[in-house]
Design brief:
By secondary structure, the chain is α/β, with parallel strands linked by helices. The chain is built from 10 helices and 16 strands. Strands 1-2-4-3-5-16-6-15 form an 8-stranded mixed sheet, sandwiched between helices. Strands 10-12-8-13 form a 4-stranded antiparallel sheet, covered by helices on one side. The protein starts with a helix and ends with a helix.
Length: 399
């Protein structure tokens, strides 16, 4: 079957996809409990003949579409949660919830997957397999995908043999699909450090043990850790984004706190960095006679695309959209993503969909002014459908 027809079909549902995206955008919800977003998804898939179940620890939605033949199964995923931040876009459909905004495109992810579900439901009798639609809360730091796996996301017969997800990006022109084999997004762990000295008068530091210069020395030593202990071709990014200490100009505080993140694109470098962070912080503090508490909170693992599946996605995108709108990424992105948990269990890939505005300023994901070029959503819908259809065709070929 020609994928030209798939792209044409996607354009027929673009308007309703945009309307659903804007509805979700107006009412952003954060974390693992998203009742309004869940209700919008359930309403959108009602009547499509799916086997639908919802989560108990989170407001997830899992919908299975069984085709003419039940096997194989492919999983298609969209995350649903927003970010805890104020929106400053000035859009007519801007957030109506104080302190919450869809600044990472999850509203678009949900709407595109619903659009794809509608198109695939029309082809039910011709589908040579089943599709598991995964609508997931809690991607923004709440491990929602892991919760869904623990609640039996992959249970049922047959289990998924492939998995695919899209993420919008300002880095590509509208409608471009970009991905790569192997590591495509980084791990994301949190660094929390408290240096404890002895407080006192700022005019007599010799009577105190000032934690502030010790904390600053730790930050500087971390940069040496990265540049001298990490292979440049297997990189790490370590950022201390918050330093907090003191109350006024003439008081040396007792403690200084550091908060930051470390990103890597291999589990080996991840372990090396976590061990090194603790060793450096404890060593610098000990050299000055201070105490230090180091807490390393593990976040999402490295998102690793299956090489064969990523190649298949790129091939499908070239057929669907043409080579000019299909890019193989040269490098991973150092953001993190909890679709990584799914890819640890199922061979698959995450791809980026360019949604850069055609004109005007371009603001990145997680910006309070982030905008999405909604014309690109048709390509995203079509990619979900095309990947599913070509996946079934590939599975049915004689080996």
């Amino acid at each position: 079957m020609s994928l030209v027809e798939v792209l044409a079909d996607a354009k027929t549902v673009l308007d309703e996809t945009i309307q659903l995206r804007r509805r979700i955008h107006r009412h952003p919800e954060t974390g693992l409990v998203l009742p309004h977003t869940q209700a919008a998804v359930l309403e959108a898939v009602e009547g499509l003949g799916f086997d639908v179940r919802t989560g108990t620890r989170t407001t997830s939605v899992v919908a299975r579409l069984t085709g003419g033949r039940p096997s194989p199964t492919i999983l298609l995923r969209a995350d649903m949660d927003a970010l805890p931040m104020r929106e400053d876009t000035g859009l007519p459909f801007a957030s109506e919830v104080a302190g919450a905004m869809h600044a990472c495109g999850h509203d678009a992810h949900v709407a595109m997957l619903v659009g794809a579900a509608r198109l695939l439901a029309r082809r039910r009798a011709d589908l040579a397999g089943s599709i598991l639609f995964m609508f997931q809360p809690g991607e923004e730091g709440y491990h929602g995908a892991r919760v869904m796996l623990e609640e039996g996301l992959l249970d049922g017969a047959p289990p998924p043999a492939g998995a695919f997800a899209l993420h919008v990006t300002h880095r590509q022109a509208a409608g471009v699909i970009a991905t790569r084999p192997g590591p495509t997004m980084a791990s994301g762990d949190t660094i929390q450090i408290v240096v404890r000295g002895r407080g006192g008068h700022a005019s007599a530091p010799h009577d105190c043990l000032d934690p502030i210069p010790i904390a600053c020395e730790i930050v500087q030593a971390f940069q040496t850790l990265v540049t001298r202990r990490v292979n440049v071709f297997d990189p790490a990014v370590l950022t201390i984004a918050k330093i907090e200490a003191g109350t006024t100009r003439n008081v040396i505080p007792e403690t200084a706190s550091l908060l930051g993140t470390v990103r890597t694109v291999s589990e080996a470098t991840r372990e090396r960095m976590l061990d090194g962070i603790r060793r450096v912080a404890e060593g610098v503090a000990a050299a000055h006679g201070a105490e230090v508490a180091v807490e390393l909170v593990r976040g999402y693992p490295v998102t690793v695309n299956d090489a064969g599946f990523a190649g298949f996605v790129l091939e499908t995108a070239r057929e669907l959209l043409g080579p000019e709108q299909t890019h193989e990424m040269r490098h991973p992105v150092m953001g993190s993503e909890d679709f990584s948990y799914v890819l640890q269990r199922v061979p698959g890939a995450m791809a980026n969909l360019g949604t850069r505005p055609d004109t005007g300023p371009v603001f990145p994901n997680h910006s309070n002014r982030m905008l999405i070029n909604e014309s690109a959503l048709a390509n995203g819908i079509a990619m979900h459908v095309a990947v599913a259809l070509r996946f079934f065709e590939r599975a049915s070929r004689p080996s």
